[in-house]
Specification:
SH3 type barrels, Arc Repressor Mutant, subunit A, elongated, DNA-binding, alpha+beta, homodimer
Amino acid sequence: MYSLSEENYLKAIFHLQKQPNQGVSTNALAEQMETKASSVTDMIKRLSEKDLVSYKKYKGVKLSSKGRNAAVQIIRKHRLWEVFLVDQLNFSWDEVHEVAEQLEHIKSKKLIRELDKFLDYPKMDPHGDPIPDEDGNIAVAEKLLLNEINPGKTTVCVGVKDTSTHFLKYLDKNNIALGKIIHIKEKEAFDESMLISIDHKELRISKMVSSNIYVKTKN
Amino acid sequence: MYSLSEENYLKAIFHLQKQPNQGVSTNALAEQMETKASSVTDMIKRLSEKDLVSYKKYKGVKLSSKGRNAAVQIIRKHRLWEVFLVDQLNFSWDEVHEVAEQLEHIKSKKLIRELDKFLDYPKMDPHGDPIPDEDGNIAVAEKLLLNEINPGKTTVCVGVKDTSTHFLKYLDKNNIALGKIIHIKEKEAFDESMLISIDHKELRISKMVSSNIYVKTKN
DNA sequence: AAATATATTTAGACACCTCTAAATATATTT
DNA sequence: AAATATATTTAGAGGTGTCTAAATATATTT
């Protein structure tokens, strides 16, 4: 398998390559990796030897499909570990990164498969980023209205439809805000009202409310 | 902190130093580490520079208290991860080692403290070896008779007092053997009979039986 | 105690990954 | 389009951790 350093480079290239479809510059990579441009050039050559990236001098690097796959699997591991740390080991959002950064390099197919199962196949990490599946597919978590979600699901608030002052004040009063974790406990068939919990407090909301809050499902 | 290689050497020295109180030979270390004697000599010099071991040429190495402490903490981590893998992630005895070997090098005080708590402070790993505490103390797990243990505890069978053929046949018939995990569910005050479970099967045993089985408690 | 066998260390080299300083290519100004 | 600035690569070197082959020390035989 790949070395720790190689894996970190692959991951960094993946993150930087996201937006543009063109190569990642040596300088950008150097900054991301907190190293010198010359070191980057050296490493890129090695990655290129192994067909993990395609590289033309002075033109930047792109991940090959082999390289992209490796990067995505590391990201999958990183995000699953983050879920574990936050959900099971009482880590807070800001504490997880450093440790997940180490855990993501552990090599064991079985470990990660069992961890995924243990965590009940979460779809996103504690920061709301999607967790790639075993085949490397990254679901674009779709934004749904809260009233479309079934009971038992856990969601993250990502936006609102109604942006009137009235509604925003209502949300504020009830502790509903961007990034808040909303768990759906019950849905009343009769009037489609919902019993949800936010910050361990229960709250009943009408359909009028639930149909104006955008969320992404976490599981 | 120490490098991966350094940590592995410290651990190996610790394991080899156990029996005799004298230094560990270069060759023994080389075999344990699956490397060459010359590499060992090189590394020993570096460890000696860092005061992790005391070393006299041709006389072998001994861990300093600093080195011993580091080694014990790695072992603590290794064994806690083994418990996690077996108890929570459906790993079997023989599968855990390789993965724990990697996980033991993760650096995070909080991680290991929370993991310990999450696992409910286990006293031994799945192989029955004791888990050192945060201060580096390694409890010598005492061998007790099963009838001395309180309900709720999980134990490992480590021996028998009565060695008659009759008794051994009884044990065999009921799936009680060395290394088996025995969980104590109830203890009847009246006759001191016990309800235990082995391999997920329940079994009621009399005091006559429980007072002839040696166990070590796992928690 | 000398001869032989075994254990250990030293010397020199190599792979991986990093660095600084210098050289070269590309981009931007004028 | 020449001059300047910026980005990138090359050259040479260092640290870590490994190796082989040779030298040296310790242990065992005779």
